[in-house]
Amino acid sequence: MFNAALAREVLAVLQRAGVDGLLLKGPTTSQLLAEPGRTRSYGDVDVLVRLDDLVAAQEVLRHAGFHSMWEGAALDELSGHAVDLVRGRAQVDLHWRIAGIRLPPEPAWQVLWAHRIERSIPGGGTAVSLDDRAALLLIGLHAAADPHQHPKVMDDLTRAVRLHGIDRWREAARLAQQLEASDFLASGLLLVAGGDSVVDALDLRRFVSTESVLRSHNPPPLALGIERLVHTQGAWPKVKILARELVPTPSGLRYWRPNTGRSKWALALAYLQRPVFLLRSLRPALAAIRRARRTAAASRGCTSSSPS
User: Fold this and answer.
1) In the chain, which stretches have pLDDT less than 70?
2) Which whole-number Å values give the CA distances from 172 to 20, 50, 126, 186, in the listed order?
């Protein structure tokens, strides 16, 4: 009930500021996976806002007592899709994109906003959330983008495969194509029992990519950064990625290395060690990418020389 009340509060705060928000997971997932005798708890509140509204959303939530866990970090240094806000034991993941969706944030928002519905929230009231097909897709994407394969995330997808028929998954797969997320949906489904049958019935193996395989199998440091660099167009964007990897912001450095001390000396030492860390990470990262490419090619039923 605590997080249900928190969800109502966050959405109300955003609405008063003129910021549209979509409640993700939480009550939506609980309703989608409802079974007699089983309950599903959730530990935080996930809300999606437009990228253009992200700064305004953070500001109004700061006035409500929230603060960023990684103040000062650049967006591309964090998870790549959300900003973590806390207030005591309350935690809000403020999303500006969904992990696994390749469509740029603004058109992706428009597609997802078109799939909004009002859902009831435990304790009373309603919230703007996603319809069933979009919510089902997010369960699959969440599993694929979770490098640690947390049991709760995997259990959600296993139950979703068991409870929802192929027609419902076909709707989710069509939406995935709109959002350029078919590879992550396929990789997520292939992680759980019964998911391979859904993938084969919908002919999704052809979409499996190196990145989706990497993300779903706990990639070593630097692997995703290299994959991102390879697929980035233009020299200047590549230089910016390299510069950020070599010299992250202090908050970004602590995000990826939580054991970095708070003193200036500890931070300076971490910066000095950064090139050594990157060099040591290079070999296992390249090995992981090669394995992911072979796995993706095998899933697609083609040779390792096929494009990824």
Assistant:
1) 37, 39-42, 78-79, 147, 261, 302-308
2) 23, 22, 24, 11
d(CA 227, CA 223): 6
Could you give the count of Cα atoms lying within 13 Å of 56 in the half-sphere of its Cβ?
14
Q: How far apart are CA 93 and CA 83, in angstroms?
A: 6
Contact of 131 with 24, CB cutoff 8 Å: no
Q: For tokens 């000062």, what's the residue?
A: 72
Return the pLDDT at 296.
94
- Could you tell me if 47 and 11 are in contact, meaning their C-beta atoms sit under 8 angstroms apart? yes
- Three-class SS state of 299: helix
Residue 24, beta-bridge partner list = 46
**What is this structure's pTM?**
0.88
Q: Work out the number of other CB atoms within 10 angstroms of the CB of residue 115.
A: 17
Exposure class string for 153-174: b at 16+ Cβ within 10 A, else e = bbebbbbbbeebeeebbebbbe
